[in-house]
Amino acid sequence: MLSSSKELQKEFWIGFNHYCKSNSASFLIREKPVEKWHYDIRFGLGKAKVSLTCNTKQNYISSEIYISDDKAAFHFLERNRVAIEKELNLSKQLEWMLLPEGKDSRIKYAIEADVFDRSKWTQYYYWLFTHADIFFITFRKYLHEHYN
Asked: Per-residue pLDDT tens for 96-122?
């Protein structure tokens, strides 16, 4: 049996899947969402992915680039930081996290969100969808350049 938070997250991602299917996404939709705090979208390039989060403990949602065990890819993206942030045209800067003590790196953009308030889910789906879309398009271009 799932915990109440895991059940809520599963319902949230099922709703997000339905939202994505009714809109045109540049990324592939997961067939079956899982009861986790994140929803991953693969680029098909290297070890990087777009990871959407639904954090019920710290009350935020985010769109981020998660890079597993490939610091060179992170450094390549960081060298193109100004151009990437200009293309994304976000209201605040990305959080660039090399995480030197581990193998993984992250580039994160988050907003406060009360995921327990189901009346706001459509608003959160829209935010996640639009940011996943622009992250997928923008970062995939740079990662393609890096890996080829």
From this structure: 999 999 999 999 999 999 999 999 999
3-state SS class at 12? helix
Nearest to 41 by CA among 142, 141, 137: 137
Domains of the chain, residue spans? 38-147
Question: What distance in Å separates the CA atoms of residue 109 and residue 55, rounded to the nearest whole number?
Answer: 13
Nearest to 127 by CA among 42, 53, 35: 53
- Among 87, 83, 31, 40, smallest CA distance to 63 is for 40
Q: Which residue's entry shows tokens 């994304």?
A: 88
Which residues are 107's β-sheet partners?
65, 96
Sign of CA dihedral 16, 18, 22, 24: positive
pTM, two decimal places: 0.91
Close Cβ partners of 99 (under 8 Å, ≥ 6 residues apart): 105, 106
Rounded to 5°, the CA angle 9-12-18 comes to 145
Q: Reduced to 3 states, what is the DSSP secondary structure of residue 41? A: strand
Is residue 62 within 8 A of residue 110, CB to CB? The reply is yes
C-alpha closest to that of 53 among 35, 68, 37 = 37
Tell me the three state secondary structure of residue 70. coil
